[in-house]
Specification:
Length: 459
């Protein structure tokens, strides 16, 4: 069977400031340690994401709930932020039609799914105004249960649903994904008798895409979550050893880490040549940033780009700016569709355009990817290549698991805990203090007590 391919040759090209094989040999013992440390935490039940593909019961529960919602409603709002939103959005974006939510029901093969994500009131108000609430249900997704952005959206929708459809109507329209035991939302699930899927304690937000967090919206939209999990299982099976040249996720983590610490390439760009993987880029940014950015001495900066769009934007910087970037180019070998480019009779004399005639848009974007990879290397810029045979659920599952495992191993290589996010928690406390949460006064006072701004610096 064709499978995901990782090719790191572009990061070992001496002309591109690449690594030497000796660098890889030197880091092999630490890579082995990082692998073992992860496996130890996994066996201890502390970190569970790599075992999600074999959790058939959890997948079935998500599929069943999605099927039930789809049989009664047309729209699903996924209320969540960060890891409680990005994974689902990445899967739906990758596997569904690019204009999924605009298609008629018969062509869609699933619900319309919306991820408001941010607590920007302008977006949320506009979304609620655009939807027919009668045909709308919502999934409130929060591991902690107390995330202000998510729970404020939940409270707004709850009030509207109760006002329009009564308590029963609200109960029919609201499902939850949260910690199986802890948190205020679990308590609400009990008090309000709401259906709630568990997000086990061992699954952190940014590692939750293959749990109910990602599976519920994906299944509701009509994506094949069975194949998604099977693909993830294939990568997991390829990553069961600590040898860097045998475990693709370990190799990816080692190369990106070495590029950062040995070659100063601390900006890690993920650049898929497929619009469908645009949201995956956002998911990767969170995965890499929140997992690895833990102290001033460590933490590569992830950047999302999309080919060929960013060839007309940030590529100039990647090509000729500071030598601080490593670009991972993602190729989908067989695009889902292709469009021939005709050459109108009257254009034959225009050499600037005539060469395009007779090609396809697929050939064009592939030529652009190949050319960009080659040009980056010739300009002394290292690259890594990831190739999916096609963009289906299985291949996406392979890719998601590869990147998640790579983040976990990279945590070990950087010497940080990839599974916490103390910096995020600090910001949450200040915001809650400002909004008057009892017990958080010291955070409010600290903010309000900050020195007044220098008026000379305010224009
Ligand atoms: O990856 C993480 O842990 C975070 O990004 C969380 O997903 C995010 O802060 C939302 O948290 P919660 O799911 O508790 O609402």
């Amino acid at each position: 069977m064709e499978r995901l391919t990782l090719d790191v040759n572009g990061a070992f090209d001496p002309a591109a400031g690449g690594l030497a094989r000796a660098d890889l040999e030197a880091i092999a013992p630490r890579a082995r340690e990082a692998f073992e440390a992860f496996e130890t935490r996994r066996r201890a039940g502390e970190v569970g994401f790599a075992d999600l593909p074999s959790d058939a019961a959890a997948a079935e529960a998500a599929r069943a709930l999605a099927g039930e919602l789809a049989s009664r409603f047309e729209n699903l709002l996924v209320l969540g932020i960060g890891g409680s939103s990005l994974g689902g959005r990445a899967v739906v974006g990758a596997l569904c039609d690019p204009f999924h939510n605009l298609l008629p029901a018969a062509a869609r093969g699933g619900m319309r799914v919306f991820f408001p994500d941010n607590s920007d009131p302008a977006t949320f108000a506009a979304l609620l105004a655009a939807l027919d609430l009668e045909r709308t249900c919502f999934a409130t997704v929060t591991k902690s249960g107390g995330t202000a952005e998510t729970m404020s959206q939940h409270m707004v929708l709850r009030q509207r649903m109760v006002a329009r459809f009564g308590e029963e109507g609200y109960r029919a329209r609201c499902v939850l994904v949260t910690d199986p035991q802890k948190g205020v939302l679990r308590q609400i699930a009990v008090d309000e008798k709401l259906r709630a899927l568990p997000l086990p304690a061992s699954i952190g937000g940014r590692f939750s895409v293959l749990s109910a967090v990602g599976l519920l919206p994906a299944a509701a939209a009509g994506a094949d979550v069975t194949a998604l999990l099977a693909g993830a299982a294939r990568t997991e099976a390829r990553c069961r050893g600590g040898e860097v040249l045998e475990n693709p996720a370990l190799l990816y983590a080692a190369v990106l880490h070495l590029m950062d610490v040995r070659r100063g390439r601390r900006l890690h760009v993920l650049m898929p040549y497929a619009d469908a993987l645009r949201d995956l880029g956002d998911w990767f940014v969170q995965l890499w940033a929140e997992s690895l950015g833990k102290n001033p001495g460590a933490g590569p900066t992830p950047i999302r780009a999309v080919g060929a769009t960013d060839q007309h934007s940030s590529l100039q910087l990647m090509m000729e700016g500071p030598h601080d970037k490593l670009v991972t180019l993602v190729r989908v070998a067989a695009p889902r569709a292709d469009v021939p480019i005709p050459l109108p009779e009257g254009y034959r004399g225009h050499a600037d355009l005539a060469y395009l005639g007779g090609h396809t848009m697929g050939e064009l974007i592939e030529a652009e990817r190949r050319a960009t990879a080659a040009a980056l290397r010739r300009n002394g810029r290292p690259t890594v290549s990831l190739e999916l045979p096609r963009l289906d659920a299985g291949a996406l599952g392979e890719l998601l698991m590869l990147l998640e495992l790579a983040a976990a191993y990279a945590g070990g290589l950087y010497g940080v805990n990839a599974f916490d996010q103390p910096g995020v928690e600090a910001g949450k406390k200040y915001a809650q203090g400002l909004l008057g949460r009892p017990g958080y006064e010291k955070y409010r006072d600290e903010l309000l007590g900050a020195p007044a701004p220098d008026p000379a610096l305010v224009l």
